[in-house]
Amino acid sequence: MNSISGSTRLISILGNPVKHSKSPSMHNNSFEKLHLDFAYMAFEIEAGKVEKAIEAMKTLKAKGFNITMPYKEEVMEFLDEIDREARIIGSVNTVLNEGGKLIGYNTDGKGFVKALEEKGVVFKDKKIVIIGAGGAARAIAVQLALDTAKEIVIANRTIENAKTISDIINKNVPKTKARSIILDEEKLKEELRDAKILINTTSIGMKETIDKSVIENTKILHKDLFVADIIYDPQKTKLLSQAENIGCKTMNGLGMLVYQGAIAFKIWTGIDMPESVIEDMLCESR
Ligand code: ATR
User: Fold this and answer.
1) Which residue's CA is minimally distant from atom 31 of ligand 1?
2) Cα–Cα distance between 97 and 95 in angstroms, integer?
3) Band of the pLDDT at 2, cuts 50, 70, 90?
């Protein structure tokens, strides 16, 4: 723990639940290593109290805060400025307090892209298939489009939710072609044939459904496909095992989690998160 003094400034995470968040240890370890006079705290915010919590951050002159589920969209009403990418994505996970002016950013999609780049995966001018159409899918899909993916296909159980994302991309990032399809193995097989990356953003494969995968017939995969899952607990989902068995390179969700934090850290402090903290987080319970 870095030592807290009379001049230490607060940075926080607001959400519900927040008890299991890995962000406090990641940021406090970084502050300590770099001798920065900040302290990071998690606050559980009840429904209907988001505006009050944000006012409190302003009153307390917090340097900034993360905002997590379920308030990433609601928070936008209470900010003074929202950066372009967060506006297109339609949600904010990081806020900077610049002398009383609150500026919102979204580092989730950027965190995913950074994790991909760290793995050496080239996605520019490539086709990407994303399964699921929730908030995480939206942040990832928009960021990949902004960073010049050629084509993005969103496959989802509820087609309307997929269409919301492909419409956002086609309207705001017309250079990337976005389409939505219903989640169906025959259709997925067709789309995956000439795709470079497959990303699972659904919760299928998490603890409660650990023996399940979004894909039943692994023949629809091919070995040149890079397969990513945004789940990090367990670190190897059934989908990633299936993919590895047929020779695909894979990535779990730990990188996205760590790099969204590292990008937020840079927004608040202007300094890169120490490599050693990033490494420790990425290696955790490997
Ligand atoms: P987040 O905001 O964290 O991305 P979310 O909003 O709950 O999470 O989104 C989860 C996505 O996973 C949704 O697109 C959901 O499909 P629907 O849009 O049809 O609700 C998808 N999903 C969750 N459980 C699923 C399941 N058992 N089968 C197929 N899709 C599932």
Assistant:
1) 202
2) 7
3) low
- pLDDT for 51-84, tens place per residue? 999 999 999 999 999 999 999 999 999 999 999 9
Token reading at 232: 């990090």
Q: Is the CB of 89 under 6 A from ligand 1?
A: no
The pick from 140, 183, 202 for probing ligand 1's pocket by mutation, whose C-beta has the most ligand atoms within 8 angstroms, reads 202
Q: Does the beta carbon of 203 lie inside 6 Å of ligand 1?
A: yes
Beta carbons within 8 Å of 241's beta carbon, 6+ residues apart: none
Task: Decide if 171 is catalytic.
Answer: no
Domain shared by 236 and 151, yes or no: yes
Tell me, yes or no, whether 240 and 145 share the same domain.
Answer: yes
Q: What is the ipTM of this complex?
A: 0.96
| C-alpha of residue 132 to centroid of ligand 1, in Å | 5
Q: Report the pLDDT value the prediction gives residue 1, as an integer from 0 to 100.
A: 52
Q: 242 and 131: one domain?
A: yes
Q: What is the pLDDT of residues 202-237, one digit of tens each?
A: 999 998 899 999 999 999 999 999 999 999 999 999
pLDDT for 37 equals 97
DSSP bridge partners of 251: 228
Q: Tell me, in angstroms, the distance from the centre of ligand 1 to residue 122's CA.
A: 26
Residue with tokens 């302290």: 39
Global confidence as pTM: 0.95
Q: How many CB atoms lie within 10 A of CB 160?
A: 9
CATH of the domain at 28: 3.40.50.10860
Let me know whether 248 and 148 are in one domain.
Answer: yes
Residues 54 and 172 in one domain: no
